[in-house]
Amino acid sequence: MRDTAREIFASALKNASIESAFAGNLHCERRVLRIGEDLYHLDSYNRVFVVSIGKAAHTMAAALEAQAGSFEAGIVASSVDHTTQVRGFRYFCGGHPTPTAESIRAAEAILKSLTALDAASLVIFMISGGGSSIVEKPVDDEISLPDLISTYKVLVHSGAPIAEINAIRKHLSAVKGGRLAQAAYPAQQVSILVSDVPDATPDALASGPTMPDSTSINDCHRIAAQYGLVDQFPKSTADLFRRHALDETPKSDDPAFIRARRWTVLSNKVAIDEAAVAATRAGFAVEVDNSCDDWPYDKAAAFLINRLRELRSQVSRVCLISGGEVTVTVRNGGIGGRNQQFALACAELISGSDITVLSAGTDGIDGNSPAAGAVVDGSTLNRISDRITDQIKAGAEGIDEARHALATFNAYPLFDALADAIVTGPTGNNLRDLRILLAY
After folding, report:
1. Gyration radius of the chain over CA positions
2. Chain segment 270-329, per-residue pLDDT in tens
3. Are 304 and 292 contacting, i.e. CB atoms less than 8 angstroms apart?
4. Shortest CA distance to 305 belongs to which of 338, 273, 351?
5. Contacts of 31 (CB under 8 A, 6+ apart)
6. What are the structural domains of the chain?
């Protein structure tokens, strides 16, 4: 069943592709580009400029070229240094999960290009997850790159949900929270989104660089107080909070959004639907439950295992699929990520039972590990005891090793030794995580 879970995940990755999404949502004929339900007569603009940012930036640029042909000018900012490039695009390799000097160079190049556009220009934004760190420029010049990196680490390790992390990122950034749209004004704008955020909060994607911001300065201060962030921030960032010197981000009534449209062409729901198709094909009764999105990993594990057992009491061969992300608070960090943390928490809950759990990221990256996630079943703890050698503390029981790995955020070495890590490499896509639970 571990192989079956892997096959379901692989099928979801293959069929929830950017290439398929662009083919279904974009079409260009005689220089008329259709995006969603909108038509853009490309020859009617003095200039067309393309900006593609995030983990899927290169894949999106290549898919746009496949559907619409080449463009004269554009920028791709991704976290992967690609061996091939789309003609006409300048490439930047920004950092993830924390910004780098290249992230700032990418932001500066994009801002410079956008401010040169006029009302007779069209800018096509293509936004995917990871853009929050891949393209970044502090709103205050007093925030140095080391301070920016320190600020990001505090946020990522805070245990706050991604939407709350993004609220603060937006207000500290010169490009997020609608500020790229402001820079592009008065050009006509359209944003094509490959989303790794909940469908109800599209402005959280890459911290919403082209969309009105639904969060406020007051939200930032509330979140900072709730998680005790100000005292952890470097002085330059903390001073902005202590002096109440944050500037408000543009809202829906800002002129920048009068000629701006957006289309979500791919999201976590598509990955969930494709996983459900694959599970049904494999002979499972399928249920989808996303209610634990943004829950702590251990609470989500207990909830989903209990829900699976309820379903198993009613029907044989059941598959429970859950999308979105769980949260972790990293302390004494080793090598791992939220998906492996979740899977290892499940291993203890299902020990000895006919249950299999896979949790993995559709981007192929889980935390600071080389894996996308991991798969566990009722035999995992026993196999840890039987097969782990001196690379992990020798002689301890499997359950002790699992709990130690959870406490130190060091799940990857366990799964690597068991050959139960899910390793795909970067997928060029980013549709949040999938959790696939099988009972039989």
Report:
1. 22
2. 999 999 999 999 999 999 999 999 899 999 999 999 999 999 999 989 999 999 999 888
3. yes
4. 351
5. 41, 42, 43
6. 18-267 (3.40.50.10180), 269-439 (3.40.1480.10)
